[in-house]
Design a protein that fits this description.
This protein folds into 2 domains: 2-149, Alpha/beta knot; 166-234, Trp Operon Repressor, Chain A. The chain has 7 helices and 9 strands, in the order E-H-E-E-E-H-E-H-E-H-E-H-E-E-H-H. The chain has helices spanning 20-27, 64-71, 92-98, 117-121, 138-149, 197-215, 227-234; strands spanning 2-6, 32-36, 50-51, 61-62, 79-89, 103-107, 125-128, 182-183, 186-187. Helix 1 (20-27) links the parallel strand 1 and strand 2 (32-36). It is elongated. Bound molecules: S-adenosylmethionine. S-adenosylmethionine (SAM) is lined by residues 83-86, 108-110, 112-113, 128-130, 132-137, 140. Residues 83-86, 108-110, 112-113, 128-130, 132-137, 140 line the site of S-adenosylmethionine.
């Protein structure tokens, strides 16, 4: 998969894409990143990419021509995303859909955002990573890149591990523990040391349900609950 990242700050991504699993995935050739800076597509000596908003208001707006020229560098049938707090909320479900794409374009806004006509010109999918406002779309783009990349075949060393992640089955993941068995009086739950496979599975399921009920009860509405789950949740 190739990510085309349209950004005024390509340097923002340097360390994030050069460490850990993303670095390994790049080295394996699973993912590729191409940076396109709208500033390279300006026509004045100051390389201007922003201007005052029509109708007044605070801040500056990213101008259409440099963004349009930057987008012309991307494949015509690529999936084009504009990062914006005004967009639809990005989710694991959306990541699964996007993981099937070959080329994804991520447009990172800055200042007050971009000239609104770009959305219509390119039928952009406008996505938000949460109900808060960031300085720019770069960290939002990184969120989306990581969520999608984890789902690509070959990305995880253990193919199954993302299937246990939170949201994969619409609920949150159970808690994890590792050595030592006891630390300052805090113990690992006994069942996890029992070696009893079916009891461990039952414990994991119940912990997932418990955490989901506590932190994100609305998720339980869309997930499949069997009789045992429902009885556990009633307690
Ligand atoms: N004036 C805009 C508004 O209130 O909707 C916010 C602009 S924000 C300071 C600059 C850029 O950061 C946006 O154009 C967008 O690309 C990015 N951004 C900010 N918050 C975001 C979020 N929650 N999700 C995705 N992108 C975001």
């Amino acid at each position: 998969m190739t990510f085309y990242i349209i950004t005024l700050f390509p340097e923002y991504f340097a360390s994030a894409l050069n460490c850990g699993q993303l670095k390994k995935a790049r080295e394996k050739g699973l993912i590729k990143f191409i940076f396109i800076n709208p500033r390279d597509f300006t026509e004045d000596k100051h390389k201007t990419v922003d201007d005052k908003p029509y109708g007044g208001g605070a801040g500056m707006v990213m101008m259409l021509p440099p963004l349009d020229r930057a987008l012309q560098q991307t494949p015509q049938n690529s999936y084009k995303i504009l990062l914006s707090p005004k967009g639809k909320l990005f989710s694991q479900e959306k990541a699964k859909i996007l993981a099937k794409q070959k080329d994804i374009v991520l447009i990172c806004g800055r200042y007050e955002g971009i000239d609104a006509r770009l959305e219509e010109m390119y039928s952009l999918d406008v996505l938000s990573v949460g109900d808060y406002v960031l300085n720019g779309g770069e960290s939002a783009a990184l969120n989306i890149i990581e969520a999608i990349s984890r789902l690509l075949p070959g990305f995880m060393s253990k193919e199954e591990s993302f299937k246990e992640d939170s949201f994969f089955n619409d609920i949150l993941e159970y808690p994890h523990y590792t050595r030592p068995e006891e630390y300052k009086g805090y113990k690992v739950p006994q069942v996890l040391l029992s070696g009893h496979h079916s009891k461990i599975l039952k414990w994991k399921r119940q912990k997932s349900l418990e955490i989901t009920l506590k932190n994100r009860p609305e998720l339980l509405i869309k997930t499949y609950l069997n009789q045992e789950d429902r009885e556990f949740l009633k307690k």
